[in-house]
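Methods — Computational structure assignment.
A single polypeptide chain was analysed. Its primary sequence is given first, followed by the predicted tertiary structure written as structure tokens.
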Amino acid sequence: MKRVIGKLVCFLLLLAGVAGANAQSVAGAASGRSGELPKVYMFKEINAANLVKIYEALGREATGKVAVKLSTGEPGGHNFLQPALIKDLVQKVNGTIVECNTAYAGKRAKTEDSYKAAEDHGFTAIAPVDIMDADGDTPLPVKGGKRLKEDYVGSHYLNYDFTVVLSHFKGHAMAGFGGALKNISIGIASANGKTWIHTAGRTKVPGELWSNIPQQEEWLEAMAEAAKAVADHCGDNILYISVANNLSVDCDCDSSPEDPKMGDIGILASLDPVALDKACTDLVRSSEDHGKIHLIERIDSRKGMHTLDYAEQLGMGSQKYELVKLD
């Protein structure tokens, strides 16, 4: 009898050990402690077919009503991702191209003008286009932020089930560079939300933006916090693809951007936006193209890498990654 009881106890302890190990494994995977670095996939050759292939390499299917977030470009500019390049990917996921109005007095500050810019640049010919703050905005909570407690996104954003973040990686006059993190923070924010981020929570009134500019680190941190609000909202229903071409020091929001001084790098993609942005900046720095000095100067003079440092602190992702070359 004692022998039977002893075997039963051992069996129960074994079951408890297996259950505990499984629980630790699940917890470790959920918290990113699995030991595996996030993968960043890359094609050097930039074309429509490779854009579809790199999406497929991520292994995360865009389902439901899909928002494809990209910049449709300020009129006068010409470096934005071209409709011919992105058409196959957008149509493969049956996506709607989404944008929000700008907070500055350009030609996309009003919904009708934003839509016209998208039409004139050829985007309405390949997919539906939604200016998401046409009917106002809605708050998303910022968890663990020190600059913002909420992020204000276009109200239509809540209509979507999945987000494909399709970014043009390039420089930026204020942020140093623009990539995945900027695309989901400033890009998905309403005009009021853009003002909120740029002023690190001082005002939501676009007309008051330029008189409320904070210290550089403050607004970069606010941008990272707004990106976290979007990422938290999406959970696993989001993925990130960046095209590093037309590498001007200026953003697609500039109506007269400086011409690129270095050659194209490629298409990169990841499920980790921090890893993706870091990989893009690393490839600029390691390039043998002497023209890189202009983009590097723009990034570093604006303290652009602070955005990634802070986003990593917020738990958004890792600056360590595995680069997987696909060509």
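Note: The chain has two domains: 1-35, 39-325.
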